[in-house]
Amino acid sequence: MSSRYPIPAGESRIELLVKNSRFIGRAGYTPSVESARLFIEQVKTEESGSSHAVYAFAVGHGATVTHGMSDAGEPSGTAGRPALAVVKGSGLGDVTVVIIRYFGGTKLGTGGLVKAYTETAQLALAELPLTEKVERKQVQVIVSYPFYEQTKRLIETHHGQVENEEFTTEVTIQLTFIVDDLPGFESAIVELTRGEVVVEVWD
Staple 22 to which of 94, 102, 108, 139, CB 3.0 to 4.6 Å? Predict the structure, then answer.
């Protein structure tokens, strides 16, 4: 699993008119299945009076992703599935797209529905502000006093964040590291102290 992946940094709302049917695409950041469901309910409440509230979500990323979708009463395979295909193709994690349809009186047919839901999902995701989710780990380092200053410099060089320090017979430093920066720090500190260091890593 990649330790970094793109996620929404906010929400988006777009509208698409297809043969008098209004499609409203809403997308947002949902780091859990529970938050995805809450976002879906929130959109349904805010866009009340609609004919259908189709959704697709991806929680997590890569090998540990959970997908969900609903056709919300549209013919099977014409709404939720194309929306989910767009979500999967976007490469985004922790994202939910909800597409609200206000029926305009003209039937679109299955091909028309697939096209409309696909386009609405694409537009909603294209408008999303993005950021990067970075996996971090908790690290505890125990060093003797002679190595303290150099250890602090190493932590800075490898972009570690000091959370806490305890000074007893030795120095215990609690840190947070971006996963990608951790191996370089570990090998550097072992080299600095000639192996006289305790490094513990938690997920």
Answer: 102
Cβ–Cβ under 8 Å, residues 158 and 187: no
Chain centroid to Cα 66, Å, comes to 12
Q: Say whether both 54 and 123 belong to one domain.
A: yes
- pLDDT of residue 190 exceeding 80, the answer is yes
pLDDT computed for residue 163 by the predictor: 92
The answer to whether 36 touches 93, Cβ cutoff 8 Å, is no
Question: How many CB atoms are located within 10 Å of the residue 30 CB?
Answer: 24
- 155 with 191, same domain? yes
Torsion of CA 126, 93, 50, 80, to 10 degrees: 100
Three-state secondary structure call for residue 45: helix
CA distances from 192 to 8, 98, 121, 157, 195 (A): 40, 53, 52, 13, 8
Q: How far is CA 85 from CA 17, 42, 121, 134, 185, in A?
A: 21, 23, 9, 24, 40
DSSP 3-state of 154? helix
Three-state DSSP at 151 gives helix
Residue 142 is part of which domain span?
Answer: 135-202
The first and second tokens of residue 95, run together, are 């994202």
**Does 102 score more than 50 pLDDT?**
yes
pLDDT at 49: 80
